[in-house]
What does this fold into?
Amino acid sequence: MQLSRRDVLRASGTLAGAQIGVTGPLTSRAVTVATQNLGLGVPLLDLLTEEQVDPVLVGERFAQLRASAVPERMAALAAGLTAESPAIIGVQEGVLAERNGEPVVDFLASLERGFERAGGRYRRAAVSPNADITLPAKRDGERFDVRFHDRGALFVREDVAVDATDASTFAINASRRLDGRRLVATRGFCRADCVVGGVPAVAVSTHLSAADRRIRLVQAQALANQLPDDGAVVVLADLNSAPIERDPSAYSLLAGELTDAAAAVGEPELTCCREPALDGGELGFRLDCVLTGGPVTPLSTRLTAVDESARVRAGDRSLWPSDHAGVVADLRVGVGLRRLGDAVRALIARLFGANPFA
It folds into this structure.
């Protein structure tokens, strides 16, 4: 691609303006992000607390999941998130449930359909494959296998560029030997290297273990070790660790290295947890967080999926769309010195419709 002298001068003027003004197109950008645990809708932990698997109980839980209005719940969450128009959304508990190998419930696909119906133009950028467990089930005299595949994910708005993605599982996870085999409640994280309005930002979605605070702490350290040491970082998380948890904790470790957006702006609200069946309960803990690192300034935070109007019908029941509230954060995202060249390239590509450095 040949650049004319006028093109060069135009780019130079834009770049100069970006360097001078702290709100210029290169040095910082207002960015809204969100995190939302999608809420399975049934209790599953008790399936793994006995000495052996109870197929009748597995079948009962599977039937409850199918009756929990997953498409309607995901549509409600998608509508609430779309109304906030975040550039990046991290989600947890994006479960895929199968019966004898056939998909029956897919939270991520239902959420995507919800975005489309709500007019939200989002695409799935990265997925973290977490626990993947198959159990024998029995229901109405019929035997079958049920697969529960937990996933985390990152969604980005259509105008957000994604340069690279990655996903990883933690080496240390909760596990239990059941019926002669070890079942592992694998957790991990996914990452997307994004460019929002010309400004690079690394986004991460993660869900730490609910089983043991020591395991959470190890997972939190593993996550911290994987974060870049330069540039903007946004971690969208269900930490399963509250600020009030005694130290050392997963929360204190990560909040010590990153900035808890809600705490920074003085707006920490409770996010969890309603009843697992979603028909009641109050939010009593703050487990869901937007954490930031590098040249990022939190401006404000707020909750979604907390108004009664968000509830959906499931037969004769009224359900919350999730047992967690969502957290939305408005941020001012800047450019780290090492990433300035990336931002320059992104801006030139935006101005001229191509990347002359490619």
Observations:
- Residues 82 and 120 are 5 Å apart (CA to CA).
- The chain has a mean pLDDT of 88.
- The chain has one domain: 5-9+28-352.
